[in-house]
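User: Can you help me understand a structure? I only have the sequence.
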Amino acid sequence: MTRDIKQDIEHWVPAAIRALSAYHVPDPGNCIKLDAMENPYQWPPELVTAWLERLRTVSLNRYPDPSARSLQQALRTAMRIPDAIDVLLGNGSDELIQMIIQTLAAPGRVILAPEPTFVMYRLIAQVVGVKFAGVPLTDNFQLDMDAMLEAIDLHQPAVVFLAYPNNPTGNLFEAKAIRRIIEASPGLVVVDEAYAAFASDSFMGLLGEYSNLLVLRTVSKMGLAGLRLGLLAGPPAWLGEIDKTRLPYNINVLTQVSAEFALEHRDVLDTQTAQIRADREVLLKALQAFPGLRVYPSEANFILFRTPAGRADKIFAGLRERGILIKNLHGAGGALTDCLRVTVGTPAENSAFVDALRALL
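Assistant: Let's start by predicting it. Here is the structure, written out as tokens:
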């Protein structure tokens, strides 16, 4: 018997899920890929050879260490996590965001974040069935403290997410403002430091000073995006509860071994991120030289810029026609109207982007 699939979906899939759009990742084709905040540099050949030799020791027929204890210790050292603080690993920081929200999800609960920011905070809250409250940033993408504190008082959020630096704007919020939010929040405050490798400040050293503070990190922006590895650091009591939502063996054995190997060669990763920071400044100055663009400061590995009114879509399409793929944020509307975001690539990739952009302006 053939059933009406559409009717079945409407019956069984909640309306809130049916109303969502799946997270879309565009196919770059043969374009220079400057849309996803990836490290553009690969490892030197001799390091790749040593890594492949390490992988020969892996037993694929066995489950991985469920807690990834050896990798946890390597990450604690690399990221200077305080001794009294616990660590929880996830399949990318996205999984950890989901675990945090799942742990605190209950009828009437609210997740809060300033916007525009990382889209997964809102998306995961909607998927889990928790209300999300977004608080608009100021015109220069800073925290509107009066609005933030008013929203915290009104919604009593279970979690406040603060991307530091913020994505997609690239700026660091004022540290003293974040402290005020932590102190005013009745629930958890998660400082998401996905771009810590490129930033001048961190809240990792403040863990333990505030009982409701957690810090998120990822190795993706360090040059290990393919491994899908995120880290959550915070008080043991909180992480013990969040760990209950983690699926078993969520960090596969290849990721564990590969990430630990990479951290043994942290100097290679650090050299690459230092190069990206230097290239960011060169690219920033090049963009600032274009009349008609508003270029925003960045402490991440990408730069947000605003095009002349009504031209973002055409510039984005023109760049793609010239073999350059960046991120078009114009469709998000609001504060991101007319905005595009470019990832810092290699010097050659950055030059190709600047040349293509010059031809379009």
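Now, to help you interpret it: The mean pLDDT is 95. The chain is about 40% helix and 15% strand. Let me know which part you'd like to focus on.
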